[in-house]
TrEMBL record:
Domain Chitin-binding type-4: 22-161
Entry-linked InterPro entries: Cellulose/chitin-bd_N, GlcNAc_Chitin_IntDeg, Ig_E-set
Protein name from the UniProt record: Chitin-binding protein
The keyword Signal belongs to this UniProt entry's keyword annotation: yes
PANTHER family per record: CHITIN-BINDING TYPE-4 DOMAIN-CONTAINING PROTEIN, GLCNAC-BINDING PROTEIN A
Swiss-Prot/TrEMBL keywords: Signal
Pfam families: LPMO_10
Domain of life per record: Bacteria
Organism expressing this protein natively: Bradyrhizobium stylosanthis
Record flagged with keyword Signal: yes
């Protein structure tokens, strides 16, 4: 879904703190509409949230996790942020900023500037793969992946519903 960049900010017309020449942001999605808000038309179905509403991928708590991005149209990219729900989040309530950790558990930053300089090397590889260390979690949690564009006020938002399991032990018991 495409919406304003700089989540968890709540307003638009902000400058990037690490790249002041980047385009200012549009307002990010509002609380309760984080999954389904889009400039091309909201999808309220995606904002429905219950413990059993969505199929979940199985992930291992504290493990390294591969995230793969494929693009319909690659754009000069400032960063990718990966947020996760708090340990005590309410899986029966709509997604709000209060449901997520304040800081991303993983950030991939493109430092090149200014965005209009081809030597800044801001175009992502196709596909783009990130390896991130997952936080310690058990049970149902949501990962919010955000791809922020340097030459646009927008970002792309992707939700991953996951069931976290303890990592498999490498030792065997007799």
């Amino acid at each position: 879904m495409e919406s304003g960049k700089f989540f968890p900010a709540m307003r638009g017309e902000m400058l990037d703190q690490t790249a002041a020449t980047d385009v200012q942001n549009a307002a990010p999605p509002t609380d309760g509409h984080i999954a389904g808000s889009s400039v091309s038309g909201d999808v309220p179905l995606l904002d429905e949230q219950t413990p059993t509403r969505w199929e979940k991928v199985r992930l291992h708590s504290g493990a390294k996790q591969k995230f793969k991005w494929e693009y319909a149209a690659a754009q000069p990219t400032r960063r990718w942020n990966y947020f996760i729900t708090r340990i005590d989040w309410n899986s029966s309530s709509p997604l709000t900023r209060a449901q997520f950790e304040v800081k991303p558990f993983c950030t991939i930053q493109n430092p090149g500037q200014p965005f209009w300089d081809p030597n800044a090397k801001l175009m992502p590889q196709e596909p783009t793969v990130h390896i991130c260390d997952l936080p310690k979690r058990t049970g149902y949690h949501i990962i919010l992946a955000v791809w922020e564009i340097a030459n646009s006020p927008m970002a792309f938002y992707q939700i991953v519903d996951a069931t976290f399991e303890e990592p498999k032990s490498s030792s065997s018991s007799h």
